[in-house]
């Protein structure tokens, strides 16, 4: 098992190198350069050259790339071009915990809600409940996160006043767990909504497939209650493919967090990304791109390892 | 010997798009204590559906037992409340299937799959159940049983998996074992071994066996009586000796003539012309009439009944009036 994990990690290295090259290239190709945004258009050419020199913007592209990668390996993503030159690492570290918390809670939401619904649908295929679950899933899939977020804020926060309209906690209040949870529920739900739909559909089809398997008939022939048959013999088989789905869904969580954090004024890396993108703060954009890529790659490795643990047929 | 299981006028139909498929259409069957009964017939004759109906494991929705009784020690299993039925299923009546490769759960160890039955039905402690599981695996011929219980099914061959299935089915010393073509999917060399194990264990535990098979060669070795099915009905029922020496029904006659002389199963019945009619499109009158070399006018108009003649029964007009004996 340990060798399997190490092998999977080593295999990820070329992938990560590719990711750094691509993200570097994309930012290079983007129109406009930081000087045009940061500086007074009437600046003297000499000052402009000084600025370019200071940030290494005059070096050949490949030198810029190697410098950037080399620094990154020491967790130095450079300094923000704005924000008074705060190191990117510091900017990200300030925001990261908020995003991780949001993603964790919405993953829990997504699984807790979709798996029971998926199983319920699969055990009563083509029933009215099954059709209702399908319709709601498709609606969830088709509803844009920003719209759902705004609607929920309008209804639950503005009209009913049940939840705050945004932020991680009440301003200037001492730390309070309930207050934090209170602020988390709406954004986590919105972030989970699209993936809930996908997960429900996958759980349903996976479990529907499992209920037709011969070993389920064997379990029934043993005299077990239907519930035991489904949960003890079916669920583990049905969930194994769902674990890999999680690896696929992780990028949608990261992408979704950009929108959800903006709608709910959630100070996480998603909003940091939007802010930096609008101001062409290259070091921050690149740092965030690489960070989220590493997340996705790691998420997939974790999904593979979990898969190997739950399915004894996987050889490693 | 008294009857352990009496199936009376069992009818299991499938419903599909306004169409009724009478897969099992009035089956009568008796199994006595300690007896091995073979159920034979071509593919599609309703053997599997009969056995699943006895266990009340018909896939639903789709199929339904529409009529008849399954009397087990006098109680009708079809009328039995679910809770009572679950105490019998897997405990007093157990079943092994044709597909050893897929009948075991791939994510549970072999030990877990046997132990769970013992804990559930016999209320054994975990350690005692584990001990018993090892014994059972030794009984079906595994020498490394203590290690095997921690293995997953995918490491075993088909024959080994079927032995595990037998160990599992015999774990509660059942009164009745239903074996639906337990050797069909296996290598010819392994078939004899599996049947041998089944025979040994059923003798040891005094278990009655309902053996479903294509292979008449197997039947003559292991069974006491034979029930021949055709198109969802029983067409003949007799002791093995009677049937092989003197088959009455023209279909049984054809089956016996087509037993290959050396070994193997009947892949194609040379001596019976034509094919089994699909159950949704059955001929009028005797269902065997279109293929029967002895058919006469009446056969195409009326359905013969299963009539008892001394120790055997047959469903054919040729034997309706005369006394049949040895
Ligand atoms: N799920 C189902 N839906 C519709 N019809 C079915 C279904 N299962 C079985 N049948 C019908 O019942 C008939 C009898 O099937 P059964 O499986 O009992 O045959 P069998 O005698 O066991 O044949 P084999 O030797 O191939 O196993 C089949 O011809 C089929 O048309
Ligand atoms: S009843 Fe007629 S058709 Fe049917 S088996 Fe007997 S002789 Fe043949
Ligand atoms: Mg069958």
UniProtKB/TrEMBL annotation, chain A:
Keywords, alphabetical: Cell membrane, Membrane, Transmembrane, Transmembrane helix, Transport
Transmembrane segments: 9-30, 100-123, 135-161, 242-264, 284-309
Domain (ABC transmembrane type-1) ranges: 96-307
Bilayer disposition of the protein: Multi-pass membrane protein
Top-level taxon: Bacteria
Any one biological process term the GO annotation gives: transmembrane transport
Cellular compartments annotated: Cell membrane
A Pfam family matched in the record: BPD_transp_1
Primary location: membrane
A single cellular component GO annotation: plasma membrane
InterPro entries: BPD_transp_1_N, MetI-like, MetI-like_sf
Assigned protein family: Belongs to the binding-protein-dependent transport system permease family.
Descriptive protein name: ABC transporter permease
UniProtKB/TrEMBL annotation, chain B:
Listed SMART domains: AAA (SM00382)
Localization (cell): Cell membrane
Protein's membrane topology: Peripheral membrane protein
An example molecular function term from Gene Ontology annotations: ATP binding
Family matches, as Gene3D superfamilies: P-loop containing nucleotide triphosphate hydrolases (3.40.50.300)
GO biological process, one term: peptide transport
One cellular-component annotation, GO: plasma membrane
Key words, A-Z: ATP-binding, Cell membrane, Membrane, Nucleotide-binding, Transport
Similarity comment text for this entry: Belongs to the ABC transporter superfamily.
NCBIfam families (UniProt xref): oligo_HPY
The protein's name in its UniProt record: ABC transporter ATP-binding protein
């Amino acid at each position: 098992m340990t060798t399997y994990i190490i092998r999977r990690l080593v295999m990820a290295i070329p992938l990560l190198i590719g990711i750094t090259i691509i993200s570097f290239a994309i930012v290079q190709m983007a129109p406009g350069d930081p000087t045009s945004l940061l500086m007074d258009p009437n600046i003297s050419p000499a000052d402009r050259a000084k600025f370019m020199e200071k940030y290494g913007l005059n070096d050949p592209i490949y030198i810029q790339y190697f410098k950037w990668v080399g620094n990154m390996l020491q967790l130095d993503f450079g300094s923000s071009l704005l924000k008074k030159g705060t190191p990117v690492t510091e900017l990200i570290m300030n925001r990261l915990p908020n995003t991780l918390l949001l993603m964790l809670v919405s993953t829990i939401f997504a699984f807790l809600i979709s798996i029971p619904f998926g199983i319920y649908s699969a055990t009563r295929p083509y029933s009215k409940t099954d059709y209702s679950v399908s319709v709601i899933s498709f609606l969830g899939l088709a509803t844009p996160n920003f719209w759902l977020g705004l609607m929920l804020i309008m209804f639950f926060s503005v009209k009913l006043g049940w939840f705050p309209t945004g932020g991680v906690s009440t301003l200037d209040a001492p730390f309070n767990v309930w207050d934090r949870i209170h602020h988390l529920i709406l954004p986590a739900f919105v972030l989970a909504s699209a993936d809930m739909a996908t997960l429900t559909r996958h759980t349903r089809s996976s479990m529907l497939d499992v209920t037709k398997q011969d070993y389920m008939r064997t379990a029934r022939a043993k005299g077990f209650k239907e519930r035991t048959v489904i949960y003890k013999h079916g669920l583990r088989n049905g969930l194994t493919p769902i674990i890999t789905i999680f690896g696929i869904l992780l990028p949608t969580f990261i992408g979704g967090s950009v929108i959800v954090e903006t709608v709910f004024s959630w100070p996480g890396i998603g909003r940091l990304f939007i802010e930096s993108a609008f101001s062409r703060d290259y070091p921050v954009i690149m740092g965030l791109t690489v960070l989220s890529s590493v997340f996705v790659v790691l998420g997939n490795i974790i999904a593979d390892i979990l898969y190997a643990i739950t399915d004894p047929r996987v050889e490693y | 010997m008294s009857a352990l299981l009496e199936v009376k006028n069992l009818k299991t139909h499938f419903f599909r798009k306004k169409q009724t498929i009478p897969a099992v259409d009035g089956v009568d069957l008796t199994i006595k204590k300690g007896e091995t009964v073979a159920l034979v017939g071509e593919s599609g004759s309703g053997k599997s559906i009969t056995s699943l109906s006895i266990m009340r494991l018909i896939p639903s929705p789709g199929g339904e037992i529409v009529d008849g009784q399954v009397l087990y020690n006098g109680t009708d299993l079809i009328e039995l409340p679910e809770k009572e039925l679950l105490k019998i299923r897997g405990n007093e009546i157990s079943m092994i299937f044709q597909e050893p490769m897929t009948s075991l759960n791939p994510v549970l160890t072999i030990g877990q799959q046997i132990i769970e039955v013992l804990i559930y039905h016999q209320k054994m402690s975990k350690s005692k159940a584990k001990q018993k599981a090892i014994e059972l695996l030794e009984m079906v011929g595994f020498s490394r049983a203590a290690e095997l219980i921690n293995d997953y099914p995918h490491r075993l061959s088909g024959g080994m998996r079927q032995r595990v299935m037998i160990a599992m089915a015999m774990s509660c010393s059942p009164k009745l074992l239903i074996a639906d073509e337990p050797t069909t999917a296996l290598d010819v060399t392994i078939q004899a071994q599996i049947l041998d194990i089944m025979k040994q264990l059923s003798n040891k535990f005094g278990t009655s066996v309902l053996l479903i098979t294509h292979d008449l060669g197997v039947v003559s070795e292991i069974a006491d009586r034979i029930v021949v099915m055709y198109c969802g009905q029983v067409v003949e029922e007799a002791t093995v000796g009677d049937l092989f020496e003197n088959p009455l029904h023209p279909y049984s006659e054809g089956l016996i003539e087509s037993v290959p002389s050396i070994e193997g199963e009947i892949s194609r019945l040379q001596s019976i012309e034509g094919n089994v009619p699909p159950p949704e499109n059955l001929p009028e009158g005797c269902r065997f009439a279109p293929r029967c070399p002895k058919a006469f006018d009446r056969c195409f108009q009326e359905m013969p009944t299963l009539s008892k003649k001394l120790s055997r029964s047959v469903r054919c007009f040729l034997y309706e009036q005369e006394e049949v004996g040895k």
